[in-house]
Design brief:
Blueprint (H helix, E strand, L loop, with lengths): L9 H4 L2 H13 L4 H11 L7 H9 L3 H19 L2 E11 L25 H14 L3 E6 L8 H13 L1 E2 L2 E2 L2 E5 L5 H9 L5 E2 L7 H7 L8 H5 L1 H7 L5 E4 L7 H19 L5 E3 L20 H14 L4 E4 L5 H10 L3 E3 L30 H10 L3 E3 L3 H4 L4 H9 L3 H19 L3 H15 L5 H15 L8
Parallel strand pairs: 1-2, 1-10, 1-11, 2-5, 6-7, 7-8, 8-9, 9-10
Antiparallel strand pairs: 3-4
Helix pairs in contact: 2-4, 2-12, 3-5, 4-12, 4-13, 5-13, 6-7, 13-14, 15-19, 18-19, 18-20
Length: about 475
Amino acid sequence: MSYNSKSKKAEEFICHEEIEETLRYAAEHKNDVEDMRKILERARDCKGLSYREAALLLECEDESIHQEIFRLAQEIKEKFYGNRVVLFAPLYLSNYCINGCKYCPYHGQNKHISRKKLTQEQIRQEVTALQDMGHKRLAIEAGEDPKNNPIEYILECIDTIYSVKHKNGAIRRVNVNIAATTVENYRKLKDAGIGTYILFQETYNKEAYEDLHPSGPKSDYAYHTEAMDRAMEGGIDDVGCGVLFGLNLYKYDFVGILMHAKHLEDTYGCGPHTISVPRVRPADDIDPDTFDNGVPDDVFKRIIAILRIAVPYTGIIMSTRESKAMRGEAVQIGVSQISGGSRTSVGGYVEEEAEDDNSAQFDVNDTRTLNEVVDWLLDLGHVPSFCTACYRAGRTGDRFMSLVKTGQIANICQPNALMTFKEYLEDYATEETKQKGLKVIQERLAKIPNETVRAKVKEHLHDMEGGMRDFRF
């Protein structure tokens, strides 16, 4: 196969031979420290890196280059995202699944995991519980099962989630992580008002992919890999990619995900809205030691930092798969969205599952409450954000990217972060967190450069104390 970033065929825009050649090049030039310094210097213009340049940086073993990578990643994150960290929660709707994925406990052959599917009434209860924590943004998840989880069920769930208004609570953005589907179904998801459509590739290596997915619809490598193209054709211009690091050689998948980002950028004028960086975790019927491609912490941190440099405009997501310590380091060097207070079981927010009734997709490493995560982010110097303004104002896809690339997003995001954080502090925070957060808001308010915007934010923050909500730019 010949490489063609604008092709709509999976094996041409994710070209095995091109990835192998890129990895060979990186291995041969990994000691060219001066070249790497030039690459990093060029990357300061925030135009990103090619997948070959990124692969070279990842292959490098020179500690001084590693430190330069971390410094630059931190600078770029600060430039585009400031010190904001967006918070969300996953909501698992159903774990019925007909696929045979070897790394997922939902696989159809697993006969001892509890199979569950939420009713619309249960969804209302779960969403109420999530709103009572303070969440405004959800990522819904479901196994692939045309009988139990048809698109009509997913659409009904989205409608139910948006309909729940409890006290001052509301879910304002529903991101959707469901199996690859048709252009027609993506249009239906778009019409339902979803935020981002998320689909993890798991691995970009076709041979490894087919071995890991021996049965079910997901076993079709091309159909799965071309899903983002169909989503774009269906009108969804915010898409989220990801690989499950540890399933396959991480260097291969690192190049693969950057190739995928380039394909979307070159073909549709808009790269992925987000990239997720999960690692294999223990789960029912799944032992991570089965997979011998584990990614050590030091390498994992470099992957995150180089992704931030290579695709500076793209959000990077980290879930509660990772520990408090790893998440703390990751938000400094590139991660811009994290989950908090998460449950990876079907439901689980209203009432925690009993151990002998486990429906979880993976073990959670960071088990803190949302308030504990918010408090910790403040201690690290970050502003927790519950913002959903761009999606609701139609600033998605290339319109969002143009705002980011011109730097205008900073005039919108910081005010929206402060106002949504004030909502959280007024309605959900402990008194200690509230006082700490109000102090940070005052400090950050003073740093908004535009005087008119600053005055408007100050007015809205005051209005919130009188009970008004949902201000946005």
